[in-house]
UniProtKB/TrEMBL annotation:
Keyword Nucleotide-binding set for record: no
UniProt main location, coarse: membrane
Protein family membership: Belongs to the AzlC family.
Family matches, as InterPro entries: Brnchd-chn_aa_trnsp_permease
Membrane topology reported for the UniProt record: Multi-pass membrane protein
Domain of life of the organism encoding this protein: Bacteria
Protein name: AzlC family ABC transporter permease
UniProt-listed PANTHER family: INNER MEMBRANE PROTEIN YGAZ
Length: 260
């Protein structure tokens, strides 16, 4: 990194509110991971390699109920697919960066530092990829240390593992509420819940949760795509009529007088 790019203190001040907010959540996540069987070393490695609060809470809860590793990996895959969309929205700002740098940058990206970097890229022309990486690493440092301290606290206090299920339910309940934008999203969420219960009972396996998520998401996509396809012609027609009306208003007065 060049000398002029080593403005770490200014970047740290930008990332500090996010870093502080990670401390209580990271402590709780570390305690949960310790209850699921992770020691301090593995908690730190998991925090660095995954760096996703939702994913780590999911790992803790599924391992606590002795879920199969394949199911854990599948759930993580579908949960983390959103990062493909997030990283795509940053690609216009990083198109001049080489591929090794992009891999290095994406390995430490999560929802929160993405929000900071996207805002800075969109509003600050001097913001560059090296500063964005520093934001990622500052947040990763605070998150990892908080997780490891939480794991240490888990060694000192007794924690009821049954609370993991409640914690994860509350977390994903919050994520669900934040995703609700229209009636269709509510219907898809309800369908996914009903299918999950039915498939888990029918299959006698929590793999039904994965299948229910895929089926409900696919049906929601089909319905949404069908509604958009049906409304597009009307939308385009109204936009064309509005454009013609505005164009007629902008005609010079002499032109309208000539027509008269």
């Amino acid at each position: 990194m060049k000398v002029e790019d080593k403005n770490w203190l200014n970047v740290f001040k930008i990332a500090l509110p996010l870093c502080i907010s990670y401390v209580p959540i990271g402590l709780a996540c570390g305690i949960l991971l310790h209850s699921a069987g992770f020691n301090i070393l593995f908690t730190g490695l998991l925090s660095i390699m995954v760096f996703s609060g939702g994913a780590q809470f999911l790992i803790a809860s599924m391992l606590a109920i002795h879920a199969p590793m394949l199911q854990v990996l599948l759930m993580l895959f579908f949960l983390e697919m959103r990062y493909a969309l997030l990283s795509a929205s940053l690609s216009p700002f990083l198109k001049k960066e080489p591929l090794p740098f992009l891999i290095y940058f994406s390995s430490s990206m999560n929802d929160e530092n993405y929000a900071i970097n996207y805002l800075k890229f969109a509003t600050d022309k001097k913001w560059n990829g090296h500063q964005a990486v520093m934001v990622n690493h500052f947040s990763l440092l605070f998150w990892t240390v908080s997780n490891m301290v939480g794991s240490t606290i888990g060694n000192l206090i007794h924690f009821d593992v049954n609370l993991v299920n409640f914690t994860l339910t509350a977390l994903f309940g919050y994520m669900l509420v934040m995703q609700v934008k229209n009636l269709l999203s509510i219907l898809v969420a309800g369908l996914s819940g009903v299918l999950s219960v039915w498939l888990i009972i029918a299959m006698n396996s929590t793999m039904g949760l994965v299948i229910a998520t895929l089926v409900a998401s696919f049906l929601g996509f089909l319905v949404e795509h069908g509604l958009e396809g049906r409304s597009d012609p009307l939308l385009l027609r109204s936009l064309r009529l509005r454009h013609r009306h505005e164009s007629f208003k902008e005609l010079p007065k002499e032109t309208t007088d000539d027509h008269e």
